[in-house]
Fold each of these.
Amino acid sequence: MNMHQILRLSSILRSAISIQLRRNIGFSAVVFNKAKELDPVQKLFVDKIREYTTKSKQAGGPVDAGPEFQKDMNESLARLQRAYGEGDLTKFPEFKFEEPNFEETPK
C-alpha cells in the first residue's frame, strides 16, 4: 500500500517538475534571444529594412521607382476609376454608419 502511494506521489512530483522546467526554459529562451546579438544574416536583413524605410520616407513612395512605374500606376488607377466610379483610389475609404433607430413605432 505504501509503495503505491510513493509511486503516485513520485508521478505527481515528476509532472510538477516537468511543467516548471518547461516554463523556465521557455522564459529563458526569450530572455537569451533578446540579450544576445543578432545573427549576421538577421542583422543584415534588419539593416536593409531600416534603410528602405528611410529611403521610402525621403522619396515619399516606392524606392527606386522609375517613370515606367508611375506610368503603370496611373494606367491602373484610370482603369479602376472607370470600373468602380468616382473617388480617390489612393486613400483608404471613409465609412459613415448611421445609428439605427430602435424606438418602437406604434402600429
Amino acid sequence: MYCLQCLLPVLLIPKPTNPALMETHVMFIVLYLVGFFLERKPCTICSVVFLTAVSLICYSGVGNCIFWGNCEGHQCENG
C-alpha cells in the first residue's frame, strides 16, 4: 500500500473555479496519472483502490469529479 500514498493526494487537488482553466487542470491530472503508472508501476491492489475511489467520487454527485467541471444549468465554455 506504499504506492497509494502518492495517488491519494491527486484526489485532494482543488478544481479551478474558472472554466477556462479546467482543460489545463484535466490535462495535468491525466498526465500525472499516466506518468505515475508508467514510472512507479503501482501494485494491483493500489490501482484498484484508487480507481474505485475515483469512480465513487465521480458518480456520487454533480461537479465532484476531478476530470470535468461543475456546469449548473449552462454550458461550460471558454468564451
Amino acid sequence: MTEFSGSGASVVAIDNKIEQAMDLVKSHLMYAVREEVEVLKEQIKELIEKNSQLEQENNLLKTLASPEQLAQFQAQLQTGSPPATTQSQGTTQPPAQPASQGSGSTA
C-alpha cells in the first residue's frame, strides 16, 4: 500500500509541475499579446493621423484644382489609367534620366 501512496504523491507532484508550467506559458503569452496590442494601437493611431492629413491635403487639392482638372481626374479614375502620369512627365522624368546615366557610368 505504501507504493500506491508514494506513486500517488509523485503523480500529484507531476500534475503540480505541469500546472505551473502551463501557468508560466499562459503568463508569457498574455505578456506577448499585450505587447502586440500596444504596437497595433500605436500603428492605428499613426494611420488615423496619416489618413486625416491625406484627407486635408485631398480637400485642399480639390479646392485648388480647376473644373477641367477635376473632370480629367474623374475620367482617369473611371478608365483605370494612372492619374500621376501628367505630373511625372513634367517633374520626375527629366531629372531621372541624367541620374540613371550618371549612376550607370560610375558603377
